[in-house]
Amino acid sequence: MAKKRILLLSYSYSHQTRNLLKELVKGLEEEHIDLTWERLFPVRELRFPIGTIPSTVLMMFQTFFRKRYPIKPLPEICFQQWDMIILAGPTWSYNPAGPVLSLLDRDGKQLFAGQTILPFISCRGYWRVHFWGLRSLLKKCGAACVVDPIVFSHPTPEPWRTVGVFLKLAGKMPERGSGWFRRFYPKYGHSRQQIATARKLGKNLGRDILSDKELAQLHFETPIPTETV
Ligand SMILES: Cc1cc2nc3c(=O)[nH]c(=O)nc-3n(C[C@H](O)[C@H](O)[C@H](O)COP(=O)(O)O)c2cc1C
Predict the structure, then answer these.
(1) Residue among 24, 91, 153, 175 to mutate when testing ligand 1 (max atoms within 8 A of CB)
(2) Alpha carbon separation from 76 to 12, 79, 84, 102, 115 (Å, rounded)
(3) How far is the CA of 207 from the centre of ligand 1 (A)?
C-alpha cells in the first residue's frame, strides 16, 4: 500500500501549538504516515513575551485588523499534491495569526488549491471566528475540502485565563511568584493532559487516513472547556 503523505505547516509564537504538534506528529508517525513538517518563520523575529502592557495592547489591536507578519520563503517540497495539509497556528484577536495570514496571501493558491486541509488551532478559548475566517480564505485559495478543525483551548477557567494570557504576553509571569493570582492561574497554556490527547489524536488521524475514511467526515473530539465566540 502506498504511504500516505501529510504536509504540516505551522506557526507558534509562545510554543503552545508547537508542544501539541510534537505529540500529534509522534502519533502520526506511530501509524507510519509520511510527514513533512515545515514551520513558518517571520522575516522579523517576534520576541516572546511582547514585554510591556502598551505594546501588548498595540499588538492585540493590530492583529484584530488582521495585521500581516511577512514570513521567509517555504522550501520547494511544500508545493506538491498531498493526502492532507495540516495548517496549524494560534488565534490572534479572533483571527489566524499574522504569519499564517501572510502565508495565505503569498502562497495560498499555489499551496492549497485542490488540497484537503485540516486546521489545527491553539487558543485561549475563542476560536470560532478564527476558524470561519480561515475556512473562507482557504476556499478562496481553491481548497478542495476544509475539514473540521482540531482545537485546543487553555484549560484554566475564565476570567483568569484571559487576564493570565494578557499578563504573560506583557511579560509579567503571572504563574510565578507568591501572589494570590497564582492560585487561580497556575500555568500559562495547555495542560499535560491535552498534550497527551494530541498524541492520541495523531494516532487516530493516522488510522483514519490509512483506512481511506472520507476525510470530510472527520471530527475531532478535543475537550473544549468554555467557548462562547
Ligand atoms: C496578539 C495575540 C492575540 C490573541 N488573541 C486571542 C483570541 O482572540 N482568542 C483566543 O482564544 N486566544 C488569543 N490569544 C492567545 C493564544 O491564541 C494562545 O495563547 C495560544 O495558545 C498561543 O499559541 P502559540 O504559543 O502556539 O503561539 C492571543 C495571543 C496573542 C499573542
Answers:
(1) 91
(2) 21, 6, 17, 17, 16
(3) 30
